[in-house]
Amino acid sequence: MNPDRVTYTLSVQPNSKVKIFLLFCTIIFCFVSASYSQTSLLDKVLTLPEQNTTVEEFLKTLGKEAGCTFTHSDKIPLTKEVKLEPKKQTVKEFLDDIFEADSMKYIEKTKKIIIVPNETHNHQKTQKQTIKGRVVDLDTKVPLAGANVYINSTSPLIGDVADQNGYFKIGNLPVGWYTLNASYIGFKPVTINNILLLSGKEQVVKIRMEELVTDLEGVEISSMIDKSKPVNDLAFVSSRRISAMEMEYYPGSLDDISRAAVSFPGVSSNNDGQNHMIIRGNSPKGLQWRLEGIEVPNLNHFAEIGSSGGGVGIINNNIIGESDFMISAFPSEYGNALSGVFDLKLRAGNNDKHEQTFQIGVMGIELMVEGPLHRKSNSTYIAQYRYSTLMLIDKLLIDLESVPEFQDLSFKFFLPTKKAGTFSIFGIGGLSHEVGDSGYDWNSNMATIGIANNYIINSKTYIKTIVALSGWHYRWEDFDNMGTAEVPIDYKMYSNITEFTTRASININRKINTRHKLKMGLVFDNNHYNTFMGWKSDTLLNWWQNPNHPNHSDNINYQYTYSDDKGSAQTFQAFGNWKYRITENLMVNSGLHFIKFYLNNNYLLEPRIGISWQFLSKHTISAGYGIHSRKESLTLYTGQKTLHDGEIIQPNINLELTKAMHYVLGYSFLLNQDLILKTEAYYHYLYDIPVYPFPPYFSTINFDFGFEGNILVNEGTAYNKGIELTLEKFFSKGYHFLVNGTLYDSKFKNYLGKEYDTKYNGSYAAKGLFIKEFKVGNQKQNIISIGARCIYMGGMRYLPIDLEASLANNGEVKIWDYGFTEKADDFFRIDIQFSFIRNKPKYTEEWRLDIINVTNQKNMRYRRYNNAIRGIETEYQNPLIPLLSYRIKF
Question: What was the pLDDT predicted at 33?
Answer without folding.
Answer: 42
